[in-house]
Amino acid sequence: MEPGRKTCDVAPTSERLAQLVSCLNKLDPLPDVALITGDITHDGTAAQAAQAKHLLDPLKMPYHVVPGNHDDRTTLAKVFSGSTCPAQDEEFLHYVIEDHDIRLIGLDSTKPGAPGGEICQRRADWLQARLNEAPERPTVLFMHHPPVKFGVLETDEDGFQGADLLEGLVERFPNIERILCGHIHLTAHTQWRGTVVSTAPSAGGMRLALDLTLKKSSGFHLTNPEFQLHHRTTDGGLVTHQVEVLENDKLYLF
Q1: pLDDT in tens, 193-213
Q2: d(CA 62, CA 80)
Q3: What is the average pLDDT across 97-121?
Q4: What pLDDT, on a 0 to 100 scale, did the predictor assign at position 1?
Q5: Does the predicted model carry a pTM greater than 0.90?
Q6: What confidence tier does 55 reach under pLDDT thresholds 50, 70, 90?
Q7: Crossing angle of the two packed helices 121-133 and 163-172, in degrees rounded to 10
Q8: What is the pLDDT of residues 148-183, one digit of tens each?
Q9: Which intervals hold domain Calcineurin-like phosphoesterase (predicted)?
């Protein structure tokens, strides 16, 4: 949000994001890269995107963004131009990052004017072409919307059009080790077509109030900011940790 404003008049998301950036910069070793899976703004405005960039730019590692349903892809493309969002399509904000041991493919899953996600035929064709370029190389896809239901309104009712197009590709390319998403403001994991779909917690401290009955309108709890840390082990495994940003990070011995 713009300086001085709170998201939904409650959550100090700018302050929380600044705390998260500070925490990431203190990690040892530093992460190789930070992936921002959308909802970088609340209302899609240029002012909010510029504020987010101002808060993210102090990161000591490269970072990359893809749009969420609260974002405007044209605005993000302008504000986060260059290596942060190196869009390789005239219409959608998706791209490949080749700089790391794991190949990273950012996907634009947004559908303007709708809360749910979508992978249309054009996006599926683009992804298939990129996957064909390196079919054996370990790969992670990152996008905003989970393509599978998680038992919350944000996935089960918002929906995801074209999930069948994506699942066909995931089944064909077992080198896809993760699909990293946002949208539901909760950490959750599920197996899907031979890979793992994992959703990130809220960097802005807005944790979804979990209601598996799907009867209540979505609400959130104010929490500390959180993020996922993906660790490549020496034997080639990919381990995911959830990290909470604590104001008191004093360590106590067991």
Answers
A1: 999 999 999 999 999 999 888
A2: 12
A3: 96
A4: 59
A5: yes
A6: very high
A7: 10
A8: 999 999 999 999 999 999 999 999 999 999 999 999
A9: 17-185
Cβ proximity of 153 and 119 under 8 Å: no
Sign of CA dihedral 132, 136, 137, 141: positive
- Cα 186 from chain centroid (whole Å): 11
Beta-carbon-side half-sphere exposure of residue 245 (alpha carbons within 13 Å): 24
Q: What is the pLDDT of residue 215?
A: 81
| Alpha helix (H) residue ranges in 80-193 | 121-133, 153-156, 163-172
Chain-centre distance for alpha carbon 104: 12
Please state, in angstroms and rounded to a whole number, the distance separating the CA atoms of residues 143 and 126.
14
Domain assignments of the chain as residue spans, ordered by start: 13-244
Show the tokens assigned to 219. Answer: 């609400």
What is the spatial distance between Cα 72 and Cα 60, in angstroms, rounded to a whole number? 26
Instruction: For 171-195, give the DSSP string.
Output: HH-TTEEEEEE-SSSS-EEEEETTE
Contacts by residues 194-201 (CB-CB < 8 Å, ≥ 24 positions apart): 194/170, 195/170, 197/146, 197/147, 197/148, 198/228, 198/240, 199/146, 199/150, 200/37, 200/227, 200/228, 201/226, 201/227, 201/228, 201/242
Q: Which two tokens stand for residue 102?
A: 């794991």
Q: Quote the tokens at residue 251.
A: 């360590």
Can you name the CATH fold of 13-244?
Answer: Purple Acid Phosphatase; chain A, domain 2 (3.60.21)
| 88 or 62, greater pLDDT | 62
Tell me the residue type at 235.
Answer: D
Q: Please, what's the b/e burial string for 126-158 (b: 16 or more CB within 10 A of its CB; e: otherwise)?
A: bbeebbeeeeeebbbbbbbbbbbebebbbbeeb
Whether the Cβ atoms of residue 94 and residue 66 lie closer than 8 Å to each other? yes
